[in-house]
Design goal:
The complex is a heterodimer. Helix content of chain A is 36%, strand content 26%. Chain A is of the alpha+beta class. In chain A, strand 15 and strand 16 form a beta hairpin. In chain A, helix 10 packs antiparallel against helix 11. Chain A is globular. Chain B is of the alpha+beta class. Chain B is 26% helix and 41% strand. In chain B, the strands form two sheets. In chain B, strands 1, 2, 3, 7, 8 and 9 form a six-stranded antiparallel sheet that branches. Chain B has a three-stranded antiparallel sheet with strand order 4-6-5. In chain B, a hairpin with a 4-residue loop joins strand 2 and strand 3. The longest helix of chain B is centred in the middle third of the chain and has 19 residues.
């Protein structure tokens, strides 16, 4: 896009001055090349969000921002409920609480490589992936509600994982104030057979090696050493979250009109936080967050079973679990005042700085781990929340690479088999039920995640700690 | 947003066809037909084509679908979302559609079969129809067009 449309606040901070219907300015964090590459739609969407009632400080976009639904993907916006602030289903996204969970394995890359193929095959057999796959458990109505209230805590009680896992999950593994009663029967029906499934699209389960450490002190606090192997899971709330998103999008489109909120784009559909539809959505969305946390917890358990069989020396300990499609009530310092705000992060990762009470005690001094997923052939990154992040973006950072080309363009350029073979030649084993899906997700179809992470680091959103490279990837 | 390519023609009604259009992270589905109903049917075929070749889906079992919305664009999103729901909960794919619209109410029948991973080789799961690029309109020349981006 045209950088002349921005006022450059610093090398990495680009402001769209508030004008017209905008209540606050827009701010995009990026390097000049990343900004130039962004779609004009990002500008438009940042401006639209800035016009929503009750928005505080600015409408933000992270360095990986791209064209989303109403809100940009990579968008962060906070709303004050006492100033008419709104909550938006599109501002959270369809895959509510989609996120990343990483586990230490206690293995070196060398040890894993000795059983790499067998591990890939066994994980692929065990982890339900792709369209039409079903989980091992089928939830009845009572258990469905227990799961929606209990999240990962429910899953641990059911025997999936260990109590020690919970302290390494946001919200201690259980999102408070979830209202299973606000979740429709249709949403529950869609989830009945989908607990413990990976889904499709850009979701994956990966064994990765720590290829490089950038910040030795934080890496040590995080327990990361070069050559170590991590297991990382990227997925969300599956059918339940999508159904909730779909239903509330429609209800909020109608509610917005009733509350006299002008929407330049229907996808911005929203309702005041203090309104029946707004409150109902928050209760349902929190239940969907619990669904995502439970889902990643069950997948963790399945992965542990496979490692116990293939590589018995492994000890899978949860490092951290963080979501990147949420709306959460948080306290933030705004112009010297502490305010309770509803922070939407849509394709953006919470990145609380050192000392924040919501970061698990063993990690607190270093800052919250920020887990950034890359594409299946490139790299992922671990960052740590920086002190400066609070003032910059309500403690938020990027979430991934973002696509560089559409699925159609990718299909014209690559074939699934060819992608799998090329990656195998580089020592990365891909297992996926869908050859076309692999082609659509080819590494070249994504932007350079390194550039995005470097920009987040340079802009003071989060600190770069380590680079991870894939060894085995189960692709949904 | 530019038109990408016409991917298929329906043999029975030469005017009716579907196509996909570009969206960076996801994909757009567009149905074109002589009537609004036909455009809705073709949009549904375009959505199936995001997942698999619609020609590979046998019209074996029929599923009845009804929805209602305050306007025809929300009705299109509702229609496609009702299909997403039926695909997910019945674990089916659909390859043939018949739509009737009266006022703000849609009644339809979708024919398909259980998803066969080996034969259909589904590329991706459609999570939902969105309001992005959502449009239902009669174009100059009289043809109807129904489109939106679907989240995958």
């Amino acid at each position: 896009m045209d950088i002349a449309r921005f006022k450059r606040r610093s090398e990495y901070e680009w402001e769209i001055e508030a004008r017209g219907a905008m209540r606050v300015p827009g701010v995009i964090y990026a390097t000049e090349p990343l900004l130039r590459d962004m779609d004009d739609k990002v500008w438009e969407q940042v401006v639209n969000v800035a016009a929503l009632p009750g928005i505080v400080k600015a409408s933000y976009a992270m360095p990986d921002a791209h064209w989303g639904y109403g809100f940009p993907i990579g968008g962060v916006a906070a709303f004050d409920p006492d100033a008419g602030g709104i909550v938006s289903a599109g501002g959270v996204g369809f895959d509510i609480s989609c996120g990343v969970r990483s586990l230490h394995t206690g293995l070196s890359a060398q040890a894993l490589l000795a059983a790499q193929k067998r591990l890939a095959d066994r994980l692929y057999q065990r982890i339900p992936a792709g369209l039409g796959s079903t989980g091992a458990i089928r939830l009845g109505p009572k258990e469905m509600d227990d799961m929606l209230s209990g999240g990962a805590r429910w899953a641990v009680k059911r025997g999936y994982g260990e109590a020690a896992d919970l302290e390494r999950v946001e919200e201690g593994g259980q999102m408070a104030h979830a209202k299973p009663g606000n979740v429709s029967e249709r949403a529950k029906q869609r989830q009945r057979d989908e607990m413990g499934t990976l889904g499709s699209g850009n979701h994956y389960l990966e064994a990765q090696k720590v290829a490089r450490v950038f910040d030795a002190a934080i890496a040590q606090a995080f327990g990361l050493r070069e050559g170590d192997v991590l297991l990382t899971i990227h997925c969300g709330s599956r059918g339940l979250g999508h159904q909730i998103g779909t239903e509330f999008l429609k209800r909020m489109a109608i509610a917005a009109a009733q509350h006299g909120i002008a929407l330049p784009d229907r996808e911005l559909a929203c309702a005041p936080i203090n309104s029946p539809v707004g409150e109902e959505y928050l209760g349902a969305m929190r239940a969907a967050i619990n669904c995502a946390l439970a889902n990643r917890q069950i997948l963790t358990h399945l992965a542990r079973e496979v490692f116990a069989e293939v590589l018995p020396a492994a000890r899978l300990e949860l490092f951290y679990d963080v979501s990147h499609n949420t709306c959460k009530l948080e306290e933030h310092l705004v112009d010297g005042q502490r305010r309770r705000l509803y922070v939407h992060r849509k394709g953006a990762t919470r990145a609380f700085g050192p000392g924040h009470p919501d970061v698990p005690a063993p990690l607190r001094a270093a800052g919250q781990p920020v887990l950034i997923g890359g594409s299946m052939g490139t790299a992922s990154y671990i960052l740590a929340g920086a002190e400066t992040g609070e003032a910059r973006s309500f403690g938020s950072a990027c979430h991934g690479a973002g696509r560089a080309m559409s699925r159609h363009q990718a299909l014209r350029q690559w074939q699934g088999r060819q992608v799998v073979d090329e990656l195998a030649a580089r020592g990365i084993l891909i297992r996926s039920p869908s050859s076309r899906g692999v082609a659509e997700e080819a590494p070249g179809a994504y932007k350079d995640v390194s550039a995005v992470v470097d920009a987040a680091d340079a802009a003071g959103l989060a600190r770069k700690v380590a680079r991870l490279e894939p060894l085995v990837c189960i692709k949904g | 947003m530019r038109r990408l390519e016409s991917l298929a023609m329906l043999e029975s009604a030469p005017a009716a066809r579907w196509e996909h259009f570009e969206h960076m992270a996801d994909i757009g589905v567009r149905g074109i037909g002589a009537t609004r109903e036909q455009a809705f049917e073709q949009a549904a075929l375009a959505m199936t084509a995001v997942i698999t070749d619609p020609g590979s889906v046998a019209a074996r079992d029929a599923v009845a679908i009804e929805c209602e919305a305050p306007d025809e664009e929300l009705l299109l999103a509702d229609w496609l979302n009702a299909l997403v729901y039926e695909m997910a909960t019945r674990r089916m794919l659909f390859g043939r559609f018949e739509v009737r619209i009266e006022g703000h109410r849609l009644r339809a029948c979708a024919w398909g079969e259980p998803t066969d991973i080996g034969r259909h080789r589904p590329a991706v799961e459609v999570k939902g129809a969105t309001y992005t690029a959502l449009r239902v309109a009669q174009e100059t020349g009289g043809q109807w067009m129904a489109q939106c981006v679907v989240d995958v």
